[in-house]
């Protein structure tokens, strides 16, 4: 250790130590000369004798430095300084190489940073590997992804928490959603979660300010709230005096207890709340749902927990599964739902399972974007390979121009290893500079991607700060890049002969030509795969955007309001009157052609309301004949506003209110399913009568197949159907694209100033946001495909330009002998076209193989789509022709006499 520290000290104080060494050598020379003079030698002979005895001072100094420090470190530092000087002498080459590497390394690093934040980064809590999420299996006839459900009822939660011995704690909670949080009389929207009192304790989260709520505070009169660091900073300007302040949430008073640390963004990645309240405070926020605490089979709670240290996950899973099944059997015996066949099948088939939650609970954001980001990672990796191949070509060309320098070094005694080290050091300097710039690009691009995929009012809560995984990934990408583009040129350059010292030598080995051609073929193959992939994703986006949605997307503004945010609570009559008054004012606004209100807006991302039709015309349907439907509740004018045609019967009318007979409008799919070859008008579904049939339209997403949908009258749909007023969406069709935003806000404020608007967007924007995943894939893959085409063009240009320069005398002779231009064109372009065809032949199967992995992301286009593959091949052949235009034009316009003098 002392020796290592001494050597490090030498490196850190090298200039000082060099001066001391020179001074000491001079001292020894002077002392030796004095001794010789004292022995009788003249001064000049004494100095020469002293130098002969000491030996070569430079060699002595080198040997001393080798003993005091690390020679290989000295050598690397020397090579590094020389590499920097070399790059400064070639600024164009250095700039092109560094930018190419920055893009090649930065693209996968930025996508990996987002993927890491979504999937890999552990929660910032102690021992996150002990955290699990509770889920249970569903019967096979359910269509839930992965055949699992994560929602439990409260009696189950209580039993699991009390009877578990393998867990140090089990917590439960739910998303309350959007609330109106007022402070000092100023309203503001916030996203609220409600969790059991042991939530922060089980996780091990400590407050950044104040305190967090405890298990003792989780009571029906709970009145404390904990703020997230982000909300505290944006809403309260990071004011520490906020602790202890009384705020109101939907007109209910709460006291701010504390603020969570900045790194804690919640337990569901991308869905972090602005605030948390104890679970039992729901009795104050939503008092109409008192039955939630005792109701069996009412799934509304997400459960998580911490397994005790040393307990295997399978052991904990087996224990909780026994409790889970015992509770289900007990509930089956006492619940009215126990008589239904579906409930009985569920109880028989359900088993509790534990999902690792070290990186957070399952979230919709993670489920939506995990696979697309992995695909983009692969695409960005191909761009990195193409960038490295292109840079290797540049270095090979650069090495050819430096052949004389390298062979002089060899003639002076430099070994091949030393030359390879110097060239690899230059490549490493390029990679390090590119990697450093890539980190900046990665941080900016990942933050931009989060803003792109954020559809709400605030960006998604994803921690994108570089951690050890991101830094290690960037370092690995930089190291691999340096190896990929640096090793082959260095080995080839160091293998040269002395022939390069003869001026004018144009010799090129067969091995070097094979390497050049191989790199071009690899570039073209990678480019074909990237361009074909981009084509598939672009066609997918175009196919989805070109679907007939069953309504017209232009000139429709939508906004949502929630009466509960203004303190209307569970008063259904006041809420209905409020929503009716807003609708009346919307219809009276200038520039509004028609207006409607609904629970589910077109292509909604908030609701998916489903039900089963068990009875038609008073006749009960057999279990196998029941019809699973989606449903909506809409007002008069809704179908006219979204331009969905009425095919039979009539629309919902203004007179279809609470005093009128119950009516329902059905879509084509329901009519064809329930009444094949029959007019459905006048038939009854439960207590409602079918009065109209509308065209099928998209309900939840652009990939949805048409399914049966029922449309009730929103001001008639009473409590007997289980309907309670929540937030609703207003749809306004304007005349000629008039901007209605400010008018809408003024009219709503005129009804109730405390009622906030949210989700304000046009129907066209709503549809675009529903395709964000596809748009992201199409946009980024097209960008990467364009970069790959540019790199291929540069590589092919270099190859053709080199061939032209090498064959100028031959071109001159052929021109002088009268060779036609087309023969000269084929002579020069042939190799580039043949290499391009070879790359296409390799790239097409690679593109088909990669597209097969992304099959689930495609829509109405096959992975082996001939049009896309042929287009990619034609593009690369066109690039080869374009790349050769300038060198060919210069060669064909050259005077034969000038060309012959180049020999």
From TrEMBL:
Residues 97-320, 521-714 form the MacB-like periplasmic core domain. GO terms for molecular function: transmembrane transporter activity. It is found in: Cell membrane. The chain crosses the membrane at residues 92-115, 375-396, 427-450, 470-493, 514-538, 776-800, 832-854, 866-888. The keyword Membrane applies. Residues 379-495, 783-896 form the ABC3 transporter permease C-terminal domain. Its main location: membrane. The keyword ATP-binding does not apply. GO terms for cellular component: plasma membrane. It comes from the Bacteria. It is a multi-pass membrane protein. Keywords: Cell membrane, Membrane, Transmembrane, Transmembrane helix. PANTHER family: ABC TRANSPORTER PERMEASE YTRF, MEMBRANE COMPONENT OF TRANSPORTER-RELATED. Belongs to the ABC-4 integral membrane protein family. This is ABC transporter permease. It comes from Paludibaculum fermentans.
């Amino acid at each position: 250790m002392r020796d290592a520290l001494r050597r490090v000290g030498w490196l850190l104080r090298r200039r000082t130590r060099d001066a001391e060494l020179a001074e000491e050598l001079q001292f020894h020379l002077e002392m030796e000369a004095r001794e010789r003079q004292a022995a009788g030698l003249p001064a000049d002979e004494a100095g020469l004798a002293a130098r002969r005895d000491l030996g070569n001072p430079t060699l002595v100094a080198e040997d001393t430095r080798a003993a005091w420090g690390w020679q290989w470190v000295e050598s690397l530092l020397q090579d590094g300084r020389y590499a920097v000087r070399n790059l400064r002498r070639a600024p164009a080459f250095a700039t092109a190489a560094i930018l190419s590497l920055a893009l090649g390394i930065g693209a996968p690093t930025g996508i990996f940073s987002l993927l890491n934040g979504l999937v890999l980064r552990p929660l910032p809590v102690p021992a996150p590997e002990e955290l699990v999420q509770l889920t249970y299996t569903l019967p096979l006839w359910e269509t839930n992804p992965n055949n699992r459900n994560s929602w439990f009822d409260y009696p189950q939660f209580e039993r699991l928490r009390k009877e578990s011995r393998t867990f140090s704690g089990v917590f439960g909670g739910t998303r309350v959603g959007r609330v109106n949080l007022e402070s000092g009389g100023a309203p503001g929207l916030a996203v609220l979660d409600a969790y059991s009192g042991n939530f922060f304790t089980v996780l091990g989260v400590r407050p950044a300010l104040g305190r967090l709520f405890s298990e003792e505070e989780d009571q029906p009169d709970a009145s404390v709230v904990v703020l997230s660091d982000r909300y505290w900073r944006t809403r309260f300007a990071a004011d520490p005096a906020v602790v202890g302040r009384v705020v109101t949430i939907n007109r209910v008073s709460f006291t701010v207890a504390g603020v969570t640390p900045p790194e804690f963004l919640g337990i569901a990645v991308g869905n972090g709340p602005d605030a948390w309240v104890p679970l039992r405070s729901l009795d104050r926020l939503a008092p109409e749902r008192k039955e939630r605490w005792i109701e069996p089979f009412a799934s509304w709670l997400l459960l998580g927990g911490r397994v005790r240290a040393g307990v295997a996950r399978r052991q904990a899973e087996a224990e909780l599964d026994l409790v889970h099944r015992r509770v289900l059997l007990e509930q089956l015996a006492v619940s009215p739902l126990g008589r239904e066949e579906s409930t009985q099948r569920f109880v028989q088939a359900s088993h509790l399972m534990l999902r690792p939650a070290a990186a957070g609970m399952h979230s919709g954001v993670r489920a939506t974007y995990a696979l697309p980001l992995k695909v983009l990672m692969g695409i960005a990796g191909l761009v990195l390979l193409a960038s490295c191949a292109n840079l290797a070509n540049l270095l090979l060309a650069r090495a050819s121009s430096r052949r004389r320098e390298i062979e002089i070094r060899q003639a002076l005694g430099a070994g091949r290893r030393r030359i390879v080290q110097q060239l690899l050091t230059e490549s490493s300097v390029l990679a390090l500079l590119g990697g450093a710039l890539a980190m900046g690009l990665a941080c900016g691009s990942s933050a931009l991607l989060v803003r792109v995929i954020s559809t709400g009012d605030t960006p998604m809560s994803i921690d994108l700060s570089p951690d050890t995984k991101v830094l290690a990934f960037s370092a690995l990408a930089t190291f691999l890049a340096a190896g990929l583009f640096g090793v082959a040129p260095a080995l080839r350059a160091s293998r040269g002969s002395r022939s390069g010292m003869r001026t004018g030598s144009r010799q090129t080995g067969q091995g070097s030509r094979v390497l050049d051609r191989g790199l071009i073929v690899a570039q073209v193959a990678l480019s074909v795969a990237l361009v074909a992939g981009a084509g598939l994703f672009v066609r997918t986006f175009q196919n989805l955007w070109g679907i007939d949605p069953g309504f017209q997307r232009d000139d429709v503004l939508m906004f949502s309001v929630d009466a509960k945010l203004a303190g209307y609570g569970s008063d259904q009559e006041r809420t209905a009157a409020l929503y009716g008054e807003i609708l009346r004012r919307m219809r009276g606004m200038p520039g509004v052609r028609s207006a409607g209100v609904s629970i589910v807006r077109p292509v909604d991302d908030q609701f998916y309301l489903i039900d089963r039709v068990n009875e038609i015309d008073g006749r009960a349907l057999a279990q196998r004949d029941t019809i699973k439907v989606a449903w909506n509740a809409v007002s008069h004018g809704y179908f006219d506003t979204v331009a969905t045609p009425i095919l039979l019967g009539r629309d919902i009318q203004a007179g279809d209110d609470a005093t009128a007979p119950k009516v329902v409008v059905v879509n084509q799919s329901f009519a064809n399913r329930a009444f094949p070859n029959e007019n459905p008008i006048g038939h009854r579904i439960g207590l409602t009568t079918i009065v109209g049939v509308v065209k099928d339209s998209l309900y939840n997403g652009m990939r949805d197949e048409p399914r049966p949908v029922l449309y009730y009258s929103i001001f008639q749909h009473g409590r007997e159907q289980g309907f309670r007023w929540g937030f609703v969406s207003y749809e306004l069709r304007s005349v000629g694209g008039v901007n209605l935003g400010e008018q809408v806000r003024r009219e709503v404020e005129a009804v109730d100033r405390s009622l906030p608007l949210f989700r304000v967007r046009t129907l066209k924007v709503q549809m675009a946001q529903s395709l964000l995943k596809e748009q992201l894939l199409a946009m980024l893959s097209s960008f990467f495909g364009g970069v790959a085409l540019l790199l291929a063009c540069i590589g092919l240009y270099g190859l053709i330009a080199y061939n032209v320069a090498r064959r100028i005398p031959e071109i001159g002779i052929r021109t002088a002998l009268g060779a036609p231009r087309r023969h000269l064109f084929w002579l020069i372009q042939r190799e580039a076209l043949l290499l391009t065809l070879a790359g296409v032949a390799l790239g097409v199967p690679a593109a088909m193989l990669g597209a097969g992995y992304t099959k689930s992301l495609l829509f109405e286009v096959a992975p082996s789509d001939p049009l896309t593959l042929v287009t990619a091949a034609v593009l690369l052949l066109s690039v080869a022709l374009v790349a050769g235009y300038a060198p060919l034009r210069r060669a064909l316009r050259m005077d034969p006499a000038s060309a012959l003098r180049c020999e």
